[in-house]
Design goal:
alpha+beta; four-stranded antiparallel sheet; two-stranded antiparallel ribbon; 6 strands; elongated
């Protein structure tokens, strides 16, 4: 299993949700609001006020996925969210050694009954 996390622009969420839901084996996702700022070498604030308020709204997506659909999910996120500008966001994947659906109370694959 893999955990896919992504930070994207809020305007990209509706399209991304629509595209992900069409993928075979898509397990669902958790979405939350976030704020972020660019790396200092990528953006120079003009004054102290701008430096202290340099956060822009973002969306954080978290998906726990079977290995076999991970690449298609990541590719879909990149395809939908990327516009080629600083601030597009970030996608990363980590290994999951164990996950338990709380309604089942059983560890194992993310298959639903």
């Amino acid at each position: 299993m893999k955990e896919i996390k992504a930070i994207i622009r809020p305007s990209k969420l509706p399209t991304l949700r629509e595209k992900l839901r069409t993928l075979p084996g898509f397990p669902g996702m958790t979405v939350s609001k976030a704020e972020g700022c660019s790396a200092p070498h990528l953006h120079s604030p003009a004054n102290l006020k701008e430096e202290l308020t340099d956060y822009t709204p973002k969306i954080r997506i978290e998906i726990v996925s079977p290995d076999e659909v991970c690449d298609s999910i990541v590719d879909t996120i990149i395809h939908v969210a990327q516009i080629g500008q600083i601030g597009d966001g970030l996608v990363w994947v980590t290994d999951i050694s164990r996950a338990v659906f709380l309604y089942k109370s059983v560890a194992g694959p993310l298959e639903r009954p």
